[in-house]
Amino acid sequence: YHINRIFRKLNPRKAASPDGFFPYTLRHCVDELTPVFTDLFNTSLESRQMTACFKSSIIVPVLKKQITGLNDYRPVALMSQVMKSLERLVLAQLKFTTTLFQTPVCL
Asked: Out of the domains of life, which is the source (predicted)?
């Protein structure tokens, strides 16, 4: 699974994430940004550290149904599009790797 495939699937209508990256920019500049983020992701995974700006999120209260009190809101975390992309990349790799070691179930 490649970074450029993940970036191309981003919704360009979403707002900028807390790190300042717009999904529109990531999607439409994918050819230029893929080598940069490939190096960044590989370095982060090898060092087991991620840049602080990608780990921050903004908590937004979202109304559940009707306003009768503070309990009618649920917190939603707006995360970095870059961090979400890295999570999708790692998840795809984990799924691929674990399927290699699964044995078929006999009924």
From this structure: Eukaryota
> Do 54 and 83 form a contact (C-beta atoms < 8 A)?
yes
Angle 96-81-36 from CA coordinates, rounded to 5°: 75
Rounded Cα gap, residues 45 and 5, in angstroms: 19
Domain limits, the chain: 3-100
CA 38 to chain centre: 14
Whether residue 95 has pLDDT greater than 70: yes
DSSP-assigned beta bridge partners for residue 21? none
Report the amino acid identity of residue 71: N
pLDDT for the residue numbered 30: 94
pLDDT at 107: 55
Q: Do 40 and 7 meet the contact criterion of CB atoms below 8 Å apart?
A: no
Q: What is this structure's pTM? A: 0.79
Q: Extract the tokens encoding 44.
A: 């982060």
Question: How far apart are alpha carbons 78 and 81 in whole angstroms?
Answer: 9
**Lookup result for tokens 């360009």:** 12
Beta bridge partners of 58: 78
